[in-house]
Structure formats: C-alpha cells, structure tokens
Specification:
Elements: E1 12-16, H1 20-32, E2 36-40, H2 46-50, E3 56-59, E4 62-63, E5 66-67, H3 68-77, E6 86-90, H4 93-103, E7 108-110, H5 115-129
Amino acid sequence: MADGTGEARRRCVLLADPDEQRRHATALQLRLGGYRVVEVKAMREIPEAARAGIDILVSEAQLEDGSGVAYAAYLRKDVRTQGLPILIATYDRDGAAGAARALGEEGALELPAAPSVLLDRIGELLARSA
C-alpha cells in the first residue's frame, strides 16, 4: 500500500491497553517490528484513534472502561468494521478464552508470549485481510 509519496505505507496498529508501562513496552516491540502504532487505554478512545487509518486493533481483554472482548465482538457486527483484523492479546486467561469464543482462535493470544509470536500473529491477520 502506498502513501501520497509513492512509498509503501507502514501498517498501523491501534494498541489498546490500560496498563501504561505494558502498553509502551508492547508499542516499542511493534515499532521495532516495522509498524506504526497508535496507543489508547480505553474503549472511548478507540473511535477517535481509528481515524488515523489503522490496519489492525490489538487490545487487552479488559480496558479502562469495559471489556475489550465485548467491544471487539461489537466491531465484528458493524458492517463498517467487520473486516478489521482484531487480536485480543492478553495476560488474562479468561479474557483469552472469551476472545477465542467471540473472535475465533486466531483472534486471541494469551500472553506472555515471545515478541516474535505477537508480530507473527499480527502479520498473519493482516495477510488474511489483504
């Protein structure tokens, strides 16, 4: 995908996690993996942040103001966002199980996982959506 300059536009990850230190560490991993990253801590911030032209949503299971899993399921039902790749990458075992039920196994990743596993899963989801 090219931007206005003719250069390939880096894919953009919207990263939603209420834990600031964990969010910043994950964002750094993603940036080192070649992605642009927009960070949010709450569901209420996602619609505004998504206007930055995101390619995938990576969310913790529980956000500051509600369930990231429930929000992902809502996005799946909306015709405007049903094709958006979503990955619930969470340290919450129950949240990962809920995400797998709501989004399918490919939409859930239980953490901790090696950074390469997270990057590989994001790459797979982006490739499927292309």
